[in-house]
Amino acid sequence: MMNKFLVIVGVLLILIGAATFIHPELKMRAHQREVDVEGQKLIINTRRIVMVPPVLSGLGIVAGAALVFAGVRKSRVSQSVKSAESK
Fold first, then answer.
1. CA-CA distance, 76 to 39, in Å (whole number)?
2. Could you tell me which residues come within 8 angstroms of residue 47 by beta carbon, excluding any fewer than 6 positions away?
3. Residue 32 pLDDT more than 80?
4. How confident is the model at residue 27 (pLDDT cuts 50, 70, 90)?
5. b/e burial code for range 49-83 (CB count within 10 A of at least 16 → b)
6. Cα(26)–Cα(42) distance, integer angstroms
7. Using alpha carbons only, how large is the chain's radius of gyration in Å?
8. Do 52 and 26 contact (CB within 8 A), yes or no?
9. Could you say which of 6, 44, 56, 62 would form a disulfide bridge with 33 (CB–CB 3.0 to 4.6 Å)?
10. Residue 46 region by backbone torsions, left for phi larger than 0, else alpha for psi between -120 and 50, else beta
11. pTM over cut 0.90
């Protein structure tokens, strides 16, 4: 059960790392204001742009790969131990 969890989290980290490596800008809406100027309604939208450094994206990919490797390795070790015990 824990092995599948490690693999799933690892794959998610790889996907998020690859996505932020390809498109490093994350745009979020910060505020929306409405202002009345001489009977005209103006809507002011402000956005916050967060840049993800390529090093952080690379670390996410490497950490995800390590989790996938650890999850697969634990699965193989536990299967070999179970087959050795049954013999």
1. 71
2. 27, 28, 29, 30
3. yes
4. confident
5. eeebeeeebeebbeebeebbeebeeeeeeeeeeee
6. 26
7. 23
8. yes
9. 44
10. beta
11. no
